[in-house]
Inverse folding.
């Protein structure tokens, strides 16, 4: 099957001078070379995954700028093949701090195959542009373009034949969950093409932060924390820095959460996630905002940030998958 992905090259050890580093994640060298230290290798789509029976293919959403996606389709019953019962559409945004990982990576491909087989939805996993090559807010714009592409698409066979445009969801993990919040707020004030609306959204282990430590966050060294440093790295021109509403949706002056542009919202977190308190505070703020939709909180005990992506076969990961399935199908 045709693919847009580019195979990952094996890099030789780099002995050049380092000018900027996010330890364990990224190095930038004096000659401008960027080395991502935790990237999963790229893999092609599969017509029918041998483990999950999920099929996938790559599509181009825009050529300028280049935005693409990997579509995932569950194994369909004869009823679905006869077009009598279309499946929900999930537009998914991967995590990776806005500067690494990919919709085409082995890590996310394996997880999304399993996700689709359990939830039985059609997934559009968006390949948005990354910092530092393309700093924020480009990723937000790319993801909005992808959402519009889904809404107005009249030519993509899987979407046309099997996707239910009355049940369009958005979802993401970590930085992807941050994007989900931005898309949901934008959908509250800006119409999608063809009258399509976002029905629901899930924010899983969302990357939210702020200039003041909250909850269990350490006060000492707060400005040196990875979450603080990463935001200033991926969006150096952000008005307000780490108190920009894109990263701190509860900051004074941010758009009211009552304007979230969907009907239902699921907030997921994990007990040992260092961003947990931000997710819980976000959930509580939405609940108290006067928003007319339904909001739920789902927390998994004794687990860390995005554990379900890295260890999808564990019992707790399956608990999350079942919760996602209930949210997307009911």
């Amino acid at each position: 099957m045709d693919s847009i992905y580019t195979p990952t090259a094996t890099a030789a050890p780099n002995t050049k001078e380092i000018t900027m580093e996010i330890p364990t994640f990224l190095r930038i060298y004096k000659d401008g070379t960027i080395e991502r230290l935790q990237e999963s290798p790229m893999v092609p789509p599969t017509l029918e995954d041998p483990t999950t029976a999920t099929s996938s293919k790559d599509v181009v959403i825009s050529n300028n700028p280049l935005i693409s996606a990997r579509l995932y389709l569950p194994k369909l019953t004869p009823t679905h093949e006869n077009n009598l019962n279309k499946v929900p559409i999930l537009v998914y945004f991967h995590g990776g701090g806005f500067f690494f990982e990919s919709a085409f990576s082995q890590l996310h491909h394996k997880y999304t195959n399993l996700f689709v087989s359990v939830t039985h939805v059609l997934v559009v996993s968006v390949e948005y542009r990354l910092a530092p090559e393309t700093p924020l807010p480009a990723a937000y714009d790319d993801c909005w373009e992808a959402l519009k592409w889904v809404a107005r698409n009249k030519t993509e066979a899987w979407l046309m034949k099997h996707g239910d445009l009355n049940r369009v969801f958005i979802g993401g993990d970590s930085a992807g969950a941050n994007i989900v919040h931005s898309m949901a707020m934008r959908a509250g004030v800006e119409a999608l093409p063809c009258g399509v609306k976002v029905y629901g959204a899930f924010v899983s282990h969302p990357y939210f932060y702020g200039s003041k430590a909250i909850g269990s966050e350490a006060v000492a060294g707060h400005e040196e924390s990875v979450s603080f440093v990463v935001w200033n790295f991926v969006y150096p021109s952000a008005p307000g820095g780490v108190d920009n509403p894109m990263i701190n949706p509860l900051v004074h002056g941010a758009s009211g959460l009552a304007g979230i542009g969907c009907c239902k919202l699921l907030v997921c977190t994990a007990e040992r996630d260092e961003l947990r308190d931000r997710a819980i505070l976000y959930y509580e703020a939405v609940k108290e905002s006067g928003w007319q939709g339904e909001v739920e909180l789902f927390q998994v005990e004794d687990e860390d940030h995005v554990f379900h992506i890295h260890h999808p076969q564990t019992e707790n990961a399956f608990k999350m998958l079942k919760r996602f399935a209930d949210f997307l199908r009911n």
